From TrEMBL:
<dbReference type="GO" id="GO:0098632">
    <property type="term" value="F:cell-cell adhesion mediator activity"/>
</dbReference>
<dbReference type="Pfam" id="PF13927">
    <property type="entry name" value="Ig_3"/>
</dbReference>
<dbReference type="InterPro" id="IPR036179">
    <property type="entry name" value="Ig-like_dom_sf"/>
</dbReference>
<dbReference type="InterPro" id="IPR013783">
    <property type="entry name" value="Ig-like_fold"/>
</dbReference>
<dbReference type="InterPro" id="IPR007110">
    <property type="entry name" value="Ig-like_dom"/>
</dbReference>
<feature type="domain" description="Ig-like">
    <location>
        <begin position="37"/>
        <end position="128"/>
    </location>
</feature>
<protein>
    <recommendedName>
        <fullName>Ig-like domain-containing protein</fullName>
    </recommendedName>
</protein>
<dbReference type="GO" id="GO:0005886">
    <property type="term" value="C:plasma membrane"/>
</dbReference>
<dbReference type="GO" id="GO:0030424">
    <property type="term" value="C:axon"/>
</dbReference>
<keyword id="KW-0393">Immunoglobulin domain</keyword>
<dbReference type="GO" id="GO:0007411">
    <property type="term" value="P:axon guidance"/>
</dbReference>
<dbReference type="GO" id="GO:0007156">
    <property type="term" value="P:homophilic cell adhesion via plasma membrane adhesion molecules"/>
</dbReference>
<dbReference type="InterPro" id="IPR003599">
    <property type="entry name" value="Ig_sub"/>
</dbReference>
<dbReference type="GO" id="GO:0070593">
    <property type="term" value="P:dendrite self-avoidance"/>
</dbReference>
Length: 195
């Protein structure tokens, strides 16, 4: 792998007011030979409520199927360090995080290396996924589109979490007669449960 660095300094003088701006830019170019590791599935950013189970997938393959000189080895890390002991890795190299807690939130990285029989690492690639807490509970009743005509009462139902929602009704009153309107549902705020 070759690394090239260059620093560019640009100056700009503005005639009115005599202001001068100097910018320094660091350009780093890293070049490498064609990778012999190809991604099949990379871990994806995930947002879930606390308490849910999480599975991060990670799968790669050798770009040269005839190359038997090395095998692929997988290693997971969490925020640049070791994953927690309660987290497990499946035989397909996916990572399982049971019952999401605040301590589990962060960046999970899957590193795949081509390793020789002697344990020498020939090449490595990595992919990361961010795990964050979602602030909405999962849907119990999925929202759906509703069609309404003039004078119809529309009930929009959307249930998340463990409590029943407060149901609001709306009446189409400003539409010309015999005109239908499509009302797609969009969650715009948290609904508090009714008494």
């Amino acid at each position: 792998m070759t690394r090239h660095e260059a620093v560019f300094v640009m100056s700009a003088l503005f005639p009115r007011g005599g202001h001068q701006i100097r910018l320094a830019l660091l350009l780093i170019c890293i070049t490498s030979a064609h990778s012999l590791i190809e991604w099949v599935v990379k871990p994806e950013n995930t947002s879930l409520p606390l308490g849910q189970d999480v599975v991060f997938s990670c799968l790669a393959k050798s770009a040269d199927a005839s190359d038997t000189s090395a095998s692929l080895a997988y290693r997971w890390s969490f925020d640049g360090g070791k994953v927690q002991d309660r987290v497990s890795r499946f035989s397909n190299n996916s990572l399982f995080v049971p019952g999401l807690t605040e301590a589990d939130l962060g960046v999970y990285t899957c590193e795949v290396s081509r390793v020789t029989v002697n344990g020498n690492v020939l090449e490595s690639v990595s992919a990361s996924a961010l795990l964050i807490k979602s602030y909405l509970e999962p849907f119990i009743i999925q929202p759906s589109s509703v069609f309404a005509s003039l004078g119809d009462t529309v009930v929009l139902t959307c249930v998340t979490g463990k409590s029943s929602p407060r149901i609001k009704t709306a009446t189409c009153s400003r539409l010309p007669p015999r005109l239908s309107v499509r009302l797609p549902l969009r969650l715009t705020k948290t609904v508090t449960p009714g008494p």
